[in-house]
Design a protein that fits this description.
This protein is an alpha/beta fold and 581 residues long. It has 16 helices and 20 strands. It has helices at residues 27-38, 55-58, 79-84, 94-107, 197-209, 233-241, 243-251, 271-284, 300-317, 321-327, 394-397, 409-412, 446-467, 476-490, 521-533, 570-577; strands at 15-23, 43-46, 114-115, 120-126, 131-136, 141-149, 172-174, 189-193, 212-217, 223-225, 339-341, 353-357, 363-366, 370-373, 376-379, 382-385, 400-402, 431-433, 469-474, 539-543. Strands 1, 2, 3, 4, 5, 6, 17 and 18 form an eight-stranded mixed beta sheet that branches. It has a five-stranded parallel beta sheet with strand order 7-16-8-9-12, with helices on one face. Helix 13 (446-467) runs parallel beside helix 15. The structure holds flavin-adenine dinucleotide (FAD) and NADP nicotinamide-adenine-dinucleotide phosphate.
């Protein structure tokens, strides 16, 4: 890629026997390793990248930063860690988040058990030995009692096969695999394909460098200003003075992070009150904009009011009325993942920035020096593919995973992923997923979602050891009921109404299934807690000696928090109404 992207070091393939193999060394893989070690287990982590950090290792495009506030987009399991790490910005940039990931690896001494530049290619269950055999692209062949997938929800880049792409003579960069040394676009004609979060963050910065920037837009995107700022020492001190309280409030929220939320229905407010609230929320910025009223993602009439407000904002920023109209989305506000930007819409006021609509006439082909749409060639020297990911299941698809009786995960998930609580899948004993499909995952602040899954799994594995169990998997009946429940609850939300990556619709040919659990993080956590309290209800566990020993709640204790009833959403209500499976 570039001189600064390190080449993998040569090494001999390894063989070995471990208690657990973890795939991926992002936040999920690292925290899982930490907890496995706490149980005294041996673990090997394989990571395709050359370092830790996952998302923040790969996504080095200009402008990459978090959109959940940094003081909350961080681990909460260690109060010492909370105190010793200091974030510099409200939404910290990618290098700082990657530095945080590296700090975690060093502080908890994780690197010695992580093998980098190594992609797991196959995992096969041996039912006689009750072990997984795991293979990698570096020739490693190891076995483990547990195989834990920490492969990420947004880690398999989507590279559409545009006709002629191989003829292009310039570089093509994917935002999710950005060169380590950065890219200098100075004086170049750049084409950006896509207008999702990655594009929205990078476009204003690329526009500062490029001589011409052409953006190819398939779906116009809703975006709210970040109003990013440097965090003052006083603010940081105030949060740190009672960090556990903030963490507890976050855990009780449907999103897993805390922000002011007004439960009043939008249509119960008069027009003046609505405009005032939207204006205040716009001035606060970011994802909390959706907290202006309580029903915005549930009532179309309510959603129309916020959409209308946001369209007016776009029209007030973008000077050319025709471009402004092209930038105004016509889908439900917040249906696709809401974007958070710094100067995105205003970028289109620059004379060298052009917007090309590919919603009705898609990109026809790519030539040696341009991108052709509707018979017109737009000359470009470099292409930025901000085309997103095969979300939720894309990294699973790349591994040949074979469970009991030769069942492959690819076959089982052909019509859409099937997993109990997004944690495990019937037919795949001792195989676990962190933030898997059917869990809140991408609809929550993900580090919280990761921690809750890891803590729960660590308690499960600890229990199996306590009772001498060699294998566990969910029952088909319980898994089916959960998958059905996930689908049912999704229908309550307007989020199920558009062609988002939540449903796999961003990539042709993928099954259309609402993959994350939208019932809300605390409701989901309660369900996980109940399952554990009831002796891992919904799972079958084999055991040398029959044991009725109740599971010992260790790490999951901190997740036993009451739901913040002030913010119980219609989806959460529905999640409770549907019979508990
Ligand atoms: P990842 O960070 O994706 O790590 C998975 C790792 O597994 C990767 O390093 C990958 O290389 C490795 N892997 C995959 N397959 C294999 C294999 N076969 N063999 C070996 N290794 C493999 N979430 C938020 O909550 N807030 C945010 O502000 C936010 N911002 C984001 C910004 C961007 C640009 C993106 C893409 C995502 C963002 N997310 C955000 C979601 C983000 O993915 C999660 O917050 C979190 O970092 C996920 O951590 P993870 O460890 O589960 O997965
Ligand atoms: P994305 O949201 O899926 O956006 C991809 C863009 O590419 C969309 O505009 C999509 O159009 C377009 N596209 C895909 N295939 C195309 C094709 N064949 N022709 C033309 N356009 C095409 O991906 P992303 O921007 O990388 O973001 C993914 C997720 O990662 C986000 O939703 C968010 O969860 C996370 N993220 C967060 C941040 C942050 O602010 N912290 C930043 C980046 C990413 P369609 O909409 O029509 O499919």
């Amino acid at each position: 890629m570039d001189a600064k992207t390190p080449a993998p070091q040569a090494r001999a393939p390894e063989t070995g026997i471990f208690d657990a193999v973890v795939v991926g060394a992002g936040f999920a893989g690292m925290y899982m390793l930490h907890r496995l070690r706490g149980l005294g287990l041996s673990a090997r982590v394989y990571e395709a990248g050359g370092g830790v950090g996952g998302t923040w290792y790969w996504n080095r495009y200009p402008g990459a930063r978090c959109d959940v506030e940094s003081m909350q987009y961080s681990f909460s399991f260690s109060e010492e860690l909370d105190q010793e790490w200091t974030w510099s910005e409200k939404y910290s940039p990618q290098p700082e988040i990657l530095a945080y990931a590296n700090h975690i690896a060093d502080r908890f001494g994780l690197r010695q058990d992580i093998v980098f530049d190594t992609r797991v290619t196959a995992a096969t269950w041996d039912n006689r030995a009750k072990r997984w055999h795991i293979e990698t692209d570096r020739g490693d062949k190891v076995s483990a009692k547990f195989c834990i997938m920490a492969v990420g929800c947004l880690s398999a880049p989507n590279r559409p096969k545009f006709p002629g792409i191989e003829d292009f003579e310039g570089p093509v960069y994917h935002t999710g695999e950005w060169p380590h040394g950065g890219v200098d676009f100075t004086g170049l004609r750049v084409g950006v394909i896509g207008t999702g979060s990655s594009a929205i963050q990078s476009i204003p910065i690329i526009a500062e460098q490029a001589s011409h920037l052409t953006v190819f837009q398939r779906t116009a995107t809703w975006s709210v200003p970040a109003w990013n700022e440097t965090l003052t020492p006083d603010y940081v001190k105030a949060v740190k003075a009672d960090y556990p309280a903030l963490r507890a409030k976050a855990r009780a929220r449907p999103t897993g992070f805390y922000f002011p939320f007004n439960m009043k229905p939008a249509l119960d407010a008069g027009e003046d009150e609505r405009q005032q609230r939207y204006e205040e929320a716009w001035q606060r910025g970011g994802l909390p904009f959706l907290g202006a009223f309580g029903d915005l993602l549930f009532e179309k009439g309510a959603n129309d009011t916020i959409a209308s407000f946001a369209r007016d904002k776009i029209r007030s920023i973008v000077k050319d009325p025709a471009i402004a109209e092209l930038l105004c989305p016509d889908n439900v506000f917040g249906c696709k993942r809401l974007c958070v930007d710094t100067g995105y819409y205003a970028t289109y006021n620059l004379p060298h920035v052009k917007l090309v609509d590919v919603s009705k006439k898609p990109i026809e082909r790519i030539t040696a020096g341009g991108i052709v749409v509707d018979g017109v060639e737009y000359p470009v020297d470099a292409i930025v593919s901000a085309t997103g990911f095969a979300a939720m299941t894309g990294s699973f698809d790349k591994i040949a995973i074979t469970g009991r009786d030769g069942l492959t995960l690819a076959e089982k998930w052909r019509a859409g992923p099937r997993a109990y609580l997004g944690l495990a899948s019937a037919g795949f004993p001792n195989f676990f997923m962190i933030t898997g499909p059917g869990s809140p995952s991408v609809l929550a602040s993900m580090i919280q979602a990761i921690e809750q899954h890891v803590d729960w799994l660590a308690d499960l594995i600890g229990h199996m050891r306590d009772i001498g169990s060699s294998a566990i998997e969910p029952t088909v009946a319980d898994e089916d009921a959960w998958v059905e429940h996930v689908t049912e609850v999704s229908k309550v939300s307007l989020r199920s109404t558009c062609s988002s990556w939540y449903v796999g619709a961003n990539i042709p040919g993928r099954p259309i299934v609402f993959m994350p659990y939208i019932g809300g993080f605390p409701i989901y956590v309660q369900k996980c807690n109940e399952v554990m309290s009831n002796g891992f209800e919904g799972f079958v566990m084999d055991c040398a000696a029959a044991s009725n020993a109740p599971p010992r709640v260790r790490l999951t204790e901190r997740w036993r928090v009451p739901l913040d009833i002030e913010v119980i959403s219609p989806a959460a209500v529905a999640a409770r109404r549907v019979p508990v499976v």
